[in-house]
Specification:
By secondary structure, the protein is an alpha+beta fold. It contains three helices and nine strands. The strands form four sheets. The protein has a three-stranded antiparallel β-sheet with strand order 6-7-8. A two-stranded antiparallel sheet has the order 1-9. The relative contact order is 0.19.
């Protein structure tokens, strides 16, 4: 979804604020943080970044509409595509082992989440407060909604892409 496209630019950038985000489609609007946040990787220790492996991430488009990116790549509804990143948001499948569409699986249940209760999947900020966090899986029926891990129960939910939620980045250490 659109939220993940913006967040992956931030997650995989070492750039200073103002240089992190670039539009990828004709409909992109600059996020509110564009001039405030340095890239997620900015300031992380180089010895840590050296052991973070690039990984191929399965992603899925929503079932309503997509558009042509500025580089000419066309995205269609209900389509799987792959991205390569070092830091990424988890998908519904990777956290919960369930899918909106069994034919369009955007990741398999990760060992870390296998066997956890829904409540154990909640995400917390540095102060210990449970926060809703974006997933990379789109909600299937509306182009303006995205999947989240809900702060109250840890269950999967969806909400408007214009809302402000946290992220819980994942990476693979090699």
């Amino acid at each position: 979804g659109d939220v993940y496209k913006r967040q992956r630019q931030w997650l995989n950038s070492k750039e200073l604020a103002g240089n992190v985000w670039q539009p990828t489609t004709y409909f992109d609007v600059a996020p509110s943080w564009v001039d405030e946040l340095n890239g997620f990787m900015h300031g992380l220790p180089e010895d840590f970044l050296e052991v973070v492996e690039p990984v191929i991430i399965p992603c899925r488009t929503n079932s309503v509409c997509e558009s042509e990116s500025l580089d000419g790549t066309e995205f269609y509804p209900d389509e799987l595509y792959e991205l390569e990143d070092k830091f990424f948001l988890l998908s519904r499948g990777e956290m919960y082992g369930t899918y909106d569409n069994d034919e369009l699986q955007d990741g398999k249940l990760l060992d870390y989440y296998d066997g956890l209760t829904v409540a154990e999947k909640k995400k917390y900020d540095n102060g210990g407060t449970a926060r809703s966090a974006w997933l990379r899986s789109p909600a299937p029926t509306y182009a303006y909604t995205e999947r989240i891990v809900h702060s109250r129960a840890g269950n999967i939910n969806n909400n408007n892409a214009s809302n402000s939620y946290g992220v819980a980045p994942a990476c693979i250490i090699g």
